Here is the input.
Amino acid sequence: MQRITFIVLITLKNSTMLRKIKAILFLTLTISFGFVAPESIAQELNARIQVNSSQIQGTNKTVYEELQKGLFEFLNNRNWTNHTYSVEERIEVNFMLNITKQLSVDEFEGTLQVNSSRPVYNSGYSTPLLVFLDKNIKFRYAEGQALEFSETSHNELTSLFAYYVYLVIGFDYDSFSPSGGTEYFRIAEKIVSNAQSSTSTGWKQYENRKNRYWLVENLLNQVYSPVRDFYYTYHRQALDLMHKSPADSRTKIVEGLVELQKVHRAKPSSFIMQIVFDAKRDELINLLSESPTAEATRALNYLKELDPANANRYQKIVNKG
Here is the structure.
């Protein structure tokens, strides 16, 4: 029996936007007596989920184990888009659900950490796309409960995770094509809309300026479109080309900071800017510390203005050694 693996590079398009610039489709053919069998195709996510209940004492731990298992299957076995993903294309995402209170037998409070990343072309490195801690989690769950989601209704638990799934997918697509994630941010916006008549927290405009409502609002608000353009430039035109010309890629990143500065001066302390720097802060420091002194100093000045709460950390860019 002979096993042949074909690697095909294709560009995917539809009538409204460019799909991922380079989708790598792995088609594995097993040839035996003229029979050809395609390899099975995976879902969009390679999601890991951990449910931590260490702060809850004297309760039935089985319910948390069942919740973790149910969420893993919910995240990884569902079709979240209409697109076909190979195993290698799946989006890496980690969820940490930390349960801090059990309010009743089936009602819980806690926090949710969401970290997603994507590989950088021609390297063994994965770059963070979304790093966010949601501190306002409240949901109901009973042991053995089926986890179901609908885009037309609200469920405290599954709508929460679906919201972040679509943000993760949207950020991934934004990193491959200009505003490529809009379709998925729109679904997240719809999930927010469905939650407006519920008693769930974290979904409403008036609660605070840095919650689920405002995150997707910023992502779809044209005022902040340069921030999403920066995500494309940063990933597709800088990081993915770093193997060819590191110097040019770093210059491209600094040029992108100029565009972020314009948004920041028009809308200081925006939520979306915080999201960008929470994901990219350490990476920016590492990358730009390799820049020539003049460029590093220029980058430092931009970053201190854009992310003032962390100004001291950016000094590492110019303190070389």
Q: What stands out?
A: The chain is about 40% helix and 20% strand. Residues 1-42 have pLDDT under 50 and may be disordered. The helical segments are 62-77, 156-174, 182-194, 212-220, 225-238, 246-266, 271-288, 293-306.
